[in-house]
Specification:
The chain is built from 14 helices and twelve strands. By secondary structure, the protein is of the alpha/beta class. The strands form two sheets. Strands 9-8-7-6-10-11-12 form a seven-stranded mixed β-sheet, sandwiched between helices. A five-stranded mixed β-sheet has the order 1-2-4-3-5. The protein is globular and about 55 Å long. The structure holds nicotinamide-adenine-dinucleotide (NAD).
């Protein structure tokens, strides 16, 4: 899938070009924003449990730091490439800008299959990554966080390694930490919760009553599981379908959401859940439901299946789940797509709150985090919606225009362009 059509970085550049054109940005600004400002690759030797050494390839991309320290997660995945990391770093730049927090965009990763690594091997990989990157990261330079297949425990090992190298307490070097080590209340479900807040705002603008409606969730990790729990709690939606990399389950009456999540946590997969029929990932994306939450990886909704999507709202908790061609098709069909870098910005927003609390060494109760997150997401949605109305463009382009304008202004004020 690494043709230009599916290469995530080519997609990110295409999306930016459209916004830049619409905003009338000059050539220098466009070229600056099309590329990462810095990128690193690391060769990471890791001692395996059997005594052999395996060599892993790691990456860190600092895309644009004009609005503040670069910020973005670390993904451990067998398909991780420098282009995926570049794309995700670009999206982080637009994400921090669209929610207007004083951070830039970055991203990192390691090409590996964590499912094949023991806990001790994962710890050694986490520490090796920090040893390789310690000079380039820090609370005021570049701040990693969790992403696909990295957890609060991985963040804890990384913070420990960094503080061991620096010989001082610097919890703000990484976010998504366990609460006991300076993590923020409300971080664990922040991505999904932020998605619920913008889905609520979108439904209100579209005149859709969500209470009693239905939703389907593709991907059942951090984002997907909390989406299942919160879709009912915050929006009053029934969860009728969910899937993970092994396949999906379907119940038109709606699942007991807590039981579904417990089943996934206990068995490591969704299939086999009682009171459900099997459903393929393809069928799930085409279900007739009120809200579809893509919560897995890139390129789930393409020009092939977009004509069959029946959801009224697509709330992209995953990064890059919809290709540009599919975007056009969904827009023409009247499906309202809440673009990834707005829909899933709750994660980085609470990561930012975590950094603020680390800097103050003073911690907020969970209600305060939820309230501040709601305010931030609601304000961001309002800015994007205003752009939709003024410019008569689809939501992704409107969100890009809001974000790119803010980053371009910061670059201009710094005298870069
Ligand atoms: P995760 O590792 O916790 O979960 C990923 C899930 O996707 C797993 O359930 C896996 O089985 C499933 N999956 C993988 N391939 C699939 C496929 N082909 N079909 C269906 N399911 C599949 O990761 P996560 O943190 O939940 O991240 C998911 C998405 O959300 C990613 O795109 C990530 O970049 C994005 N995101 C996450 C956060 C966060 O705070 N966790 C923040 C912003 C964006």
């Amino acid at each position: 899938m690494d043709t230009d059509e599916y290469n995530p970085f080519s997609i990110a550049q295409r999306q930016l070009d459209e916004a830049a054109e619409r905003l009338g940005l000059d050539e220098g600004t466009r070229e600056l924003l099309r590329w990462p400002m810095r990128e690193y690759t690391f060769t990471l030797p890791v001692r395996m449990d059997d005594g052999t050494t395996r060599i892993f390839r790691g990456y860190r991309v600092q895309y644009n730091g004009s609005r503040g320290p670069t910020k973005g997660g670390l993904r451990w995945h067998p398909d991780e490439t420098i282009d995926t990391v570049r794309a995700l770093a670009a999206w982080m730049t637009w994400k921090t800008a669209v929610v207007d927090i004083p951070l830039g965009g970055g991203k990192g990763g390691v090409t590996c299959n964590p499912k094949e690594l023991s806990r001790n091997e994962q710890e050694r990989l986490a520490r090796a990554y920090i040893r390789a990157s310690a000079r380039m990261i820090g609370p005021h330079t570049d701040v990693p966080a969790p992403d696909v297949y990295t957890s609060p425990q991985v963040m804890a090992w990384m913070m420990d390694e960094y503080e061991t190298i620096r010989q001082e307490s610097r919890p703000g070097v990484i976010t998504g930490k366990p609460i006991a080590l300076g993590g923020s209340h409300g971080r664990v479900d922040a991505t999904a919760r932020g998605g619920m807040f913008v889905a609520r705002e979108a439904a209100a603008k579209l005149g859709i009553d969500l209470a009693g409606g239905t939703c389907a969730i593709q991907g059942f990790g951090n984002a997907g599981q909390y989406a299942a729990l919160l879709a009912g709690e915050v929006l009053g939606l029934k969860v009728v379908a969910a899937s993970d990399s092994h396949g999906g389950v379907y119940n038109p009456e709606g699942f007991d959401r807590k039981k579904l999540v417990d089943h996934k946590l206990f068995t490591g997969r969704l299939d086999g859940f009682p009171e459900a029929k099997p459903i393929s990932n393809e069928e799930l994306l085409e279900l007739d439901c009120t809200v579809l939450f893509p919560s897995a990886l890139e390129n789930s909704i393409t020009a092939v299946n977009a004509p069959n999507v029946k959801a009224k709202i697509v709330c992209e908790l995953a990064n890059g789940p919809t290709t540009p061609d599919a975007d056009t098709i969904l827009h023409e069909k009247g499906v309202f797509v809440i673009p990834d870098f707005l829909a899933n910005a709750g994660g980085v927003t609470v990561s930012y709150f975590e950094q603020v609390q680390n800097a103050y060494n003073h911690y907020w109760p969970v209600d305060e985090v939820h309230r501040k997150l709601d305010e931030t997401m609601t304000r961001a949605f309002a800015a994007v919606h205003e752009m939709i109305e003024i410019e008569k463009v689809h939501p992704r382009l409107a969100a890009y225009m809001v974000a790119v304008q803010r980053v371009a202004e910061a670059c201009r004020l710094r005298g870069w362009i």
